[in-house]
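Re: [ENG-882] Designed sequences occasionally contain unexpected residues at chain ends

Forwarding the minimal case from QA. Structure tokens:
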């Protein structure tokens, strides 16, 4: 069997594991130092790109290609386009120098036409071009007036027999770092490929390649670096993208299955009395649960009453009412005699949740406590000992909850709110909060998030989680009327604000900065606060909250706003997540162009939390077309999912969904926007695979299974399953 260890990324400890394969393994894991032309310095430069082994080089995929396949005549050149053309060098190139800068210049001829070529800071080019010979050039064409110029073109000799086979039609363009050139990377990758191409193992089972029209690994890895046609590029990208995502999804699936078999949690069933208390809490809510909430609660509840640990994502747009589900789950846990913890990303939100829970759980004997960074030492001591002894069953807090000192007696349930604000590590730490006794139980885990991500992406990011969706807002909510406004409209905005305040409602004013800075004309929270509080209407109480206040000051400001004492709260984005004051019906966002769409959507979610009409005004004087388009998206769409999709289209692909923050490996080939069809195929393939062979035990899946385990050891331990 070929050495499957090609897929082991620099995992040197494992290299010796399989005796007898050592020679071949050595190939794949060989250090780049073993390549001709790579010494200490080059190896260091490559390392900056995280390239250390031959395998790393093979997986260094081109970001684009130069198309040398068709050469054009000089008459066909267009300004601003890249092109390949044939031309003769008539005279020796000239070099001009100024200090450390240099410029090589030469005229190139084709029939009666000519074009000028220039190279910056590559003086050696002068000696590489021989006068009187024909070259093939490739580069970006610039035109000013009637003069054409090509800057820093690459070139190769074209008059030796004119063998078109000798010219590579599509040349890869690799991401580079200082000191490395395209030529070097192409050369290194060619050396590696020549040495190892005959050992390229195929780990995707034939039935998957057939069903989903995928090329072999050998074909794809060769043609991604050395394509002959543009079709080659498509075919290779598809295969490698599929493979990348498929391995990850399989890996998440397998680890998940493993935990299901191994882990055990407390069964949080309750007796008749407990059931009555839960029904009572639901009946006493000031509202009726929506259908979607009821469904989500049923899903959560049925997870809680088994001893297999729940691992569930509760996703619902801002204002959809996730908190009450958390409260119900916590009550169920406490009634079952175990402890439950709720972690929020900010102290403001933690305090708010603590209040909500205390209000909702009035009848129960389980008084929730609050633990944050600013909890007093004596209170903290009391809480820690209560958690350890089991006297305290419900705790709400911030990161302070995952410090080592926090030990639980019998932790039954761990919930994180606004999951997107936490990394995988924090979520994992909370999930790992071990119980004191010898039972070694795992808590049930619920993560709540408003981050609107399309389902296919949720499967990637949270592939290891079950998904509950609250896809319905409480009844009577009116869409928040959202407008853009410029500084010239400020009077009208102020009049609307006056109306809102006079009607007894409250207003948020959100600013991008805390304090004025000399070189910036962004509005700061402090400046806006001063302005508003000195206005003629001195009857208004204006509050100010930002990240630099002490915790007590923040608490006090929030308290005053929640109780209605301040009508207007000027703030930075500290109010972005979770804050819930249904009486606030207007938000003004200064310099709105500074915020991402997802963030604007979250901010706007602070209003429109009752049946009263709400307004959101996006202040911006920026004329930039893309910025205006993005603000328009927010004005016209109220659904977080639609906004996320449009943002993705406007911005183009990027790390929008923060795969990195989630602790997943970089997806190098797959593009989550462009390749949606591949994503769908991967899901289908996975479903079929699980159907056929749930443990990947059959001989035809042996290699696949091993590749998964080898390629993603880090993921497996990071995800914490
Ligand atoms: P989010 O999902 O953004 O965390 P919250 O849980 O903060 O939303 O709920 C938003 C607001 O809606 C709160 O004021 C909450 O009391 C209220 N709410 C929740 N569920 C309902 C419902 N079924 N009917 C009416 N109001 C509700
Ligand atoms: Mg919330």
């Amino acid at each position: 069997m070929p050495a499957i260890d090609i897929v082991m990324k620099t995992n040197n400890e494992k290299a010796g594991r399989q005796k007898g394969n050592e020679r071949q393994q050595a190939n794949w894991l060989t250090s780049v130092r073993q390549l001709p032309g790579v010494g200490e310095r080059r190896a260091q430069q490559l390392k900056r790109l995280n390239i250390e082994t031959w395998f790393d080089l093979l997986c260094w995929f081109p970001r684009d290609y130069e198309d040398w396949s068709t050469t054009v005549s000089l008459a066909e050149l267009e300004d601003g386009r890249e092109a390949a053309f044939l031309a003769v060098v008539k005279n020796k190139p000239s070099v001009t120098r100024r200090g450390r800068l240099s410029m090589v210049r030469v005229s190139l001829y084709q029939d009666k036409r000519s074009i000028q070529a220039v190279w910056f800071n590559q003086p050696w080019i002068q000696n590489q071009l021989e006068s009187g010979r024909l070259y093939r050039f490739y580069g970006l064409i610039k035109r000013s007036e009637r003069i054409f110029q090509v800057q820093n073109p690459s070139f190769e000799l074209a008059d030796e027999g004119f063998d078109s086979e000798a010219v590579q039609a599509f040349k890869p363009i690799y991401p580079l770092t200082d000191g490395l050139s395209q030529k070097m990377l192409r050369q290194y990758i060619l050396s590696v490929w020549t040495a190892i191409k005959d050992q390229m193992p195929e780990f995707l089972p034939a039935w998957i390649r057939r069903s989903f029209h995928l090329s072999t690994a050998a074909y794809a890895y060769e043609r991604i670096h050395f394509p002959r046609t543009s079709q080659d590029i498509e075919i290779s990208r598809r295969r490698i993208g599929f493979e990348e995502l498929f391995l990850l999804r399989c890996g998440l699936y397998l680890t998940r299955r493993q935990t299901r078999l191994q882990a055990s949690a407390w069964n949080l069933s309750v007796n008749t009395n407990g059931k009555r208390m839960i029904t009572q809490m639901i009946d006493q809510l000031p509202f009726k649960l929506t259908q979607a909430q009821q469904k989500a609660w049923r899903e959560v509840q049925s997870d809680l009453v088994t001893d297999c640990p729940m691992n569930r994502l509760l996703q619902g747009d801002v204002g959809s009412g996730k908190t009450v589900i958390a409260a119900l789950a916590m009550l169920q846990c406490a009634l079952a005699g175990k402890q439950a913890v709720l972690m929020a990303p900010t102290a403001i939100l933690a305090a708010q949740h603590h209040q909500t829970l205390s209000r909702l759980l009035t009848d129960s004997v389980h008084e929730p406590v609050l633990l944050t960074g600013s909890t007093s030492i004596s209170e903290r001591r009391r809480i820690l000992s209560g958690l350890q002894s089991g006297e305290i069953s419900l705790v709400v807090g911030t990161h302070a909850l995952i410090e080592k000192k926090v030990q639980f007696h019998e932790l039954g349930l761990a919930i994180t709110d606004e999951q997107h604000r936490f990394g995988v590590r924090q979520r994992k730490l909370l999930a790992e909060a071990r119980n004191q006794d010898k039972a070694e139980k795992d808590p049930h885990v619920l993560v709540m998030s408003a981050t609107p991500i399309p389902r296919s992406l949720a499967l990637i990011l949270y592939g290891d989680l079950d998904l509950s969706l609250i896809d319905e807002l409480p009844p009577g909510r009116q869409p928040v009327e959202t407008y853009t406004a410029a500084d010239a409209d400020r009077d009208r905005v102020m009049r609307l604000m006056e109306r809102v305040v006079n009607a007894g409602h409250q207003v948020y004013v959100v600013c991008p900065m805390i304090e004025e800075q000399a070189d910036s004309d962004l509005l700061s929270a402090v400046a806006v606060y001063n302005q508003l509080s000195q206005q003629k209407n001195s009857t208004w109480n204006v509050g100010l909250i930002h990240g630099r206040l002490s915790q007590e000051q923040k608490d006090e400001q929030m308290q005053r706003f929640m109780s209605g004492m301040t009508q207007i709260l000027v703030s930075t984005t500290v109010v972005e997540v979770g804050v819930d004051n249904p009486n606030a019906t207007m938000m003004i966002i200064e310099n709105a162009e500074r915020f991402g769409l997802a963030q604007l959507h979250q901010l706007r979610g602070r209003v429109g939390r009752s049946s009263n009409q709400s307004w959101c005004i996006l202040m911006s004087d920026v004329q930039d077309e893309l910025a205006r388009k993005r603000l328009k998206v927010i004005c016209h769409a109220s659904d977080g999912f639609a906004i996320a999709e449009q943002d993705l289209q406007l911005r183009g692909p990027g790390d929008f969904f923060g795969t990195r923050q989630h602790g997943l490996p970089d997806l190098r080939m797959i593009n989550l926007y462009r390749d949606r069809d591949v994503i769908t195929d991967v899901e289908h393939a996975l479903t079929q695979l699980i159907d056929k062979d749930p443990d990947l035990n059959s001989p035809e899946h042996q290699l696949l299974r091993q590749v998964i385990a080898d390629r993603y050891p880090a993921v497996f331990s990071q995800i914490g399953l």
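QA comment: On inspection the terminal residues look reasonable. The chain has a mean pLDDT of 84. Proposing we downgrade this to a documentation issue.
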